[in-house]
Amino acid sequence: MKKLQNVVALLVLLALCMGPVFSAGAQESQTKKAGGTVNVYSIMPEKYATKIFEEFTKDTGIRVNFVRLSSGEALARIIAEKANPQVDALWGGPADTYAAGILEGVFDKYVPSEADKIPAQFKSADGYWTGIGVIPLTFLSNAKFLKDKGLTPPTSWNDLLNPAYRNTLQMADARTSGTATERIYSLIMVMGEDEAYAYQKKLHQNIQLYTKGGAGGAMPIATGQAASGVFYIVDALDILQQGYDLVISYPVEGVTYGVEGSGLIRGAKNPEGAKALMDWASSKRLGEVMVANQINYIPTRPDVTVTNPALDMSKVTLLEADVNWKGENRSRLVERWIEEVIQQ
Amino acid sequence: MHGTMKRKSIAKTDPALFFALITVWLSFAVFIFLPLVRLLLTTFIVDGTVSLANMKKVLGTSYNIKALYGSLILATSVSIAGTFLGYLFALAVTRTNLPKVLKALLGGVTILPLISPPFTSSISLTLALGPNGMLLKAFGISDFSIYGFLGTWLSETLTYFPVAFMVIAAILNTMSATLDDAALSLGASRWRMFKTITIPLSMPGIGNSILLLFGASLADFATPLILGGHAFPVLPTEAYLMITGMFDLRGGATLSFLLLVPAMLVFFLQRMLLGKKSFVSVTGKNGARTEFAKLPTALTIFIALICSLVVVFILYLYAIILWGSFVKVWSVNNSFTLEHYRYVFRHGQKAISDTLLIAVLSTVIGSVLAVVIGYVAQRKQFVGKRFFEFSSLLNYALPGTVVGIAYIIAFNQRPILLTGTLSILVAAYVFRYYATGIRSVVASLEQIDPALEEASLSLGASSVRTFTHVTIPLIIPAVLAGMRYLFIHCMTAISATIFLVSVRWTLLTTRILESMTELQFSQACAFSMILIVIVFIADAIMLYLMKLSTSKFHKSQEISYEKVGA
């Protein structure tokens, strides 16, 4: 019988095993000090967010706990966690992600202290999100490939249709990547929707792989696995800075740009911390930190001086695409992309 | 041989079983059914009424149908190729007279794919065989494309065949060598002995392995994500893309429900195939322990050749990762640096300690559960047994992406508020990956004659005493094999937990995937190397324990023999 008792005890232990762990978790979230730490989902890459948050902590004494997620994952999680938000703010990520989130009711309005210094196209009209950086699309090509094939860097969307690029282009998959949907917006702005899809069908012949992440094709292009692709400037410059032999060029027809946002989560456990972070981000400090650390977003504050010549947009044709239009049409355009482009 | 007693009331005749069942059912209710039901509601309830609208929409797309076929074809070919390869390796280690060093090398190298996240080997595979890949350049091949079925199949086979190897080797080790002796002394050739004894007795292991690999491949999203390309869609990847890319939780959930059909089919198939035959070879009635007979020479040479080739290829793939972690800038500046490791230890320390804690907790809890469930499912009779067994494996059969999302939906509200905690990660791992432990325990029990336990019972020992003193010592090698796999999975899996990591608890694998998407290839390599080293050390300890327990097992076998004899 003693053995029986032992086993029963063991089973009870097993049943309760997770109990204490549960309550420990719950207590942890309840006893956590307010004000001291702000929890954040960052769509901005970890290496940038780490540096930026370090500076924020230095300036304000508020610590930032964060997890980096892709824009889709971040939004899916925030929606799933609506009843019990795990974070106080969303950091980075394209403005159309915020537009989609507003429809799900996951954001609270907050206009940061210096938001009035940020141009209207870089922030939500209703005060649901505030832009922290601007990133145009660009072409990124492997210099050795261009030389071997006797090509000049592409300067028109049509250059990418050249058969010389057959099976060598890598660019992002529209289902997962904001970079890819930005590419579709750009093409629509340049040539209209139906023409844009006809173009993409032709472009498909030259595609080697649609990568899941927006920056996914940059490394293969750097190492010569692929020849060229379309990227956000921040990803293109990042790989260029690592020392690879690459060329950045822009199409004469123009490109659209993404606005990286920041927003306060509805039901945040530490809204004051989140607001402090957004206030700080609306000040000149954020832009200065980005410039100093070679984080290549174009600051949303026009009064921050950008030193990198690659970020000088005076010679680039920038096309305006309305954020709300992007948000409303995204799903439809991606479904059309699946139906017409990758399934042919 | 299977003596089963009709019981009127379990609660009275076998209170320990009754209690165990209640406990396990309760845990199933919370960690398996609740999330699933909540996910079902999300999928099939549209605006408050039951609706098939989501299903119709998903099935109406030809690309999704293509993904369904893709999943089935991939899982079938991976499970066959992986099991075949695993069987060869298992035979090489347990049934040949190859040098000990070579055997150790085989065992060691096969662990590599297993202990690294699948996308890591996918990346090195891309560098070796992708466009402009090093191997292709070396052999002058220009028109080979890794993206699609072939690359995905190759990567998954290399990633999962060690599972087959582990499961089958454990079975080969617990067979009784006296049968070999009997066959040979009766004049059978070694070929005949191999065909009529070794292969049939391996069937539980082979079936088990096919099921495991089929399930693993069916649920894997990371490999097809990197290597599938748009020409070869599979369901878990499409489901993942739908959830993470299109913000479409319903669509993704609906897609993944399609996976349940093949998963269940395989499950019942395996029961049908293996349920009828008796694979008892450890009867407690054998005499002195002898060595296993060796395989025929021609077969040994064939096995050695294949295994060596595979080993060389795997080593080559991992050399790429090792090299990548020490060079300044991949393929541009190849000078040696420790900078990436410094970064990893400075910024990744929390991820490392979190991952270890979570893996250890999950392994311990998962193994205890696996032993109880496996034992009850194989040895005991009770109402709803088939459903019990099926339920236990449900989370494993479901793609991890779905489990992750289901867990978020289910555990983000009272009464069970778990998002952002350690428990949700541990629970996700336990109820997903204890499956190997259960199967391993069941397969091992199938070879052990219940007469041993009946003898113990008829001599007056309680069912609990019989379980702890007769059964457990006999199945310890199988339990440890399950534990190894559980621990490894907890260290390397990503599909479910990528949705469950929080600002307080983070994992190494998500950090590696992050580094990959952020183009920090060298950092990803350094993180991977650290992960591999940690798991390798833990694995060596586990292996040592297995060895220890196997020798103990034989001793206990003799003890039980004496008991029975007495």
How would you describe this protein?
The complex is a heterodimer of chains A (344) and B (566). Chain A is an alpha/beta fold. Chain A contains 12 helices and 11 strands. The radius of gyration of chain A is 23 Å and the shape is globular. With 566 residues, chain B is an all-alpha fold. In chain B, the strands form 3 sheets. Chain B has a two-stranded antiparallel sheet with strand order 1-2. Chain B is globular and about 70 Å long. The relative contact order of chain B is 0.13. At the A-B interface, helix 1, helix 2, strand 2, helix 3 and strand 7 of A face helix 2, helix 12, helix 16, helix 18 and strand 5 of B.
Briefly characterize the structure.
The complex is a heterodimer of chains A (344) and B (566). With 344 residues, chain A is of the alpha/beta class.
Write the layout of secondary structure elements.
The complex is a heterodimer of chains A (344) and B (566).
Chain A: H1 2-31, E1 37-42, H2 46-60, E2 63-68, H3 71-80, E3 89-94, H4 95-104, E4 107-108, E5 133-142, H5 143-149, E6 169-172, H6 178-191, H7 193-204, E7 207-211, H8 218-223, E8 228-232, H9 233-241, E9 246-249, E10 255-265, H10 271-282, H11 284-292, E11 318-319, H12 323-342
Parallel strand pairs in A: 1-2, 1-3, 6-7, 10-11
Antiparallel strand pairs in A: 3-10, 4-10, 5-8, 5-9, 5-10
Helix pairs in contact in A: 3-4, 4-12, 6-7, 7-12
Chain B: H1 10-13, H2 15-44, E1 45-46, E2 49-50, H3 53-59, H4 62-95, H5 100-115, H6 118-129, H7 134-139, H8 149-174, H9 177-185, H10 190-219, H11 222-227, H12 235-246, H13 249-275, H14 297-326, E3 327-329, E4 333-336, H15 339-347, H16 349-379, H17 385-397, H18 400-410, E5 412-413, E6 416-417, H19 422-446, H20 450-458, H21 463-492, H22 508-517, H23 521-565
Antiparallel strand pairs in B: 1-2, 3-4, 5-6
Helix pairs in contact in B: 2-13, 2-16, 2-17, 2-18, 3-13, 4-8, 4-10, 4-13, 4-14, 5-8, 5-14, 6-8, 6-14, 8-10, 8-21, 9-10, 10-13, 10-19, 12-13, 14-23, 15-23, 16-19, 16-21, 17-19, 19-21, 20-21, 21-23, 22-23
